[in-house]
Amino acid sequence: MARKKLQDELSSATRQKNLDEQVAAFLKAGGQITEVPRGKSGIEANKTRIGIVLGNPSDKKNDS
Fold first, then answer.
1. How far is the C-alpha of 61 from the C-alpha of 55, rounded, in Å?
2. Domain residues of the chain, as ranges?
3. What 3-state DSSP class applies to 49?
4. pLDDT per residue over 37-61, tens digit each?
5. Helix (DSSP H) and strand (DSSP E) numbers for the chain
6. Are the CB atoms for 20 and 26 separated by under 8 Å?
7. CA atoms within 13 A on the CB side of 59
8. Distance (Å) of CA 50 to CA 24, 43, 54, 55
9. Which distant-in-sequence residues (6+ apart) come within 8 Å of 34 by Cβ?
10. What does pTM read for this prediction?
11. Is-contact 58 51, C-beta < 8 A?
């Protein structure tokens, strides 16, 4: 919630500068940005999706 409030207080130019700095750091660390063509999905159909598990996984085992 604090992050949302901070974002609201920052000017558009400041937010853009922060984003530019984050992208530059990502690329400098070896990250890559891939442009996905319009109408295509970035998700590969043959890959298994990883779900989000909420809570402690060991608690899930004890429920059954």
1. 11
2. 1-39
3. coil
4. 888 876 777 766 667 777 776 655 5
5. 3, 0
6. no
7. 4
8. 28, 12, 13, 16
9. 42
10. 0.47
11. no
